Amino acid sequence: MRDFAYARAGTAESVVGTLADPGTSVIAGGTELLNWFRLGIAAADNVVDIGGLDELRGIATDGDDLRIGALATLNEIGEHPLVTQAASALASACLQAASAQIRNRATIGGNVLQRTRCPYFRAEEPLPWPCSKRDPGSGCASLAGRHERQAIFGWTQDCVAVQPSDPAVALAMLDAQADVLGPAGPRTIPMRDFHLTQREAAEAGQPMRETRLEPGELITGYRLPASADGQAYVKVRERASYEYAIVSAAAAVRLEAGQRIAAARVALGSVAQRPWRLTSAEAELPGTPLTREALIPVIERAMADAAPLPQNGFKVTMARNAAVRALLTAGGAS
Amino acid sequence: MTLDFARRVEVTLRLNGRDLTTVVAPRTTLLDWLREDVGLTGAKKGCNEGACGTCTVLVDGRRMNGCLTLVVQCAGRSVTTVEGLAGAGGELHPVQQAFARHDAFQCGYCTPGQLLSAVACIAEGHAADDASVREWMSGNICRCSAYPQITAAVLAAAREEPGR
Prior knowledge:
- Chain A is of the alpha+beta class.
- Chain A has a domain at 230-330: Enolase-like, domain 1 (2-Layer Sandwich), CATH 3.30.390.50.
- Chain A is 28% helix and 21% strand.
- Helices cover 32% and strands 15% of the residues of chain B.
- In chain B, strand 1 (9-15) and strand 2 (18-24) form a beta hairpin.
- The longest helix of chain B has 14 residues, at 111-124.
């Protein structure tokens, strides 16, 4: 593993000052960073440990919001009564992620900053193939090779990877805000806009950028607006547990009389380099009966701009079905 | 306030009930330290990337992958490995006894990780039935595929020593 020097942070402010240096990385759980160091994905010489910062801990209600500290682990969130009551899609997403051991280390601050599971990206240096994430501008070996697990929205010739986080999909669906501390002070980033597709990044002139987090900024926690809507997180994978999603879907549904939808939110996971809110479906769903037959055409219209790769057309159908199942489950129909 | 970055770090922790102080390079994982510095080889280095669970140990009672944990992150904490499971007189831990009784292994390579994961799984209250054991033990891979026997052993041990 890459050698590095180490310091324990005493305050979040002290971390932010240090992070402005690109040679410094933060460690919280470390489940990503240590593997990045092993593969040569991260190249920091200094690592600052934020694991002892009590100010980043805790899960509590704050007015109408649910506030989750960045250091809350996936197991803590998944089993916390405040989360299972007010944000059950997030609790479910956390508990369907990784393994019980990893969930005891992995934090919700770091989870959304995990990088793609694309095997061409996650190889030990030096890479024998092109990967623009590892060597900017070199191209995408997955596009020319195997890509059945890759994006169906927002990809470019440079990269077809997806963001694999389960909790990020639930946070985007639930309109969570990330609290961020940076050199210029605190600010918030809506989680539905936190990640960038390859196309969005290219249009902004930074093709390899993956999030709206600026250099030197630290996620300190999240705020979720209170919701009484029924919720669900559906994860489709190749084995029943401890596996990344092929596709996933998070949904929240409020019903009106006659089993019709009054309001609904739905987001897809592992279909793009960001959680994919189906906003046009959300606009169309009020008044729709909560049945599979009624929901399918609405979701299909919202996914009409999907651009599958030669090997992953199946993900369009699978994601549609996951969205429908998440909506039905959130509404209590299945 | 500036941070003081160090290339050698002194760490005091409790290992299997004994307090000890060590000086490590920050990149030293708990797994490498246990196996190569302390000489406790129960935790195995299977994948070294958090995929297999053979390095599972308890840190303050919670199960974690030793390969994804730095020694410096264990300062002030209590670490339990498979070598610390048996009683002072050498009598096996009830979970070890259940594994032996149910023949819950073939080659045994994954067993130390399975045992510690099972101890935690039971303490967490996640050993209520077959489905919950299979879900909450999924971070421990057994390539001999002794899963039915492992599941039976965890359920039996949980019945004898129910969690919280």
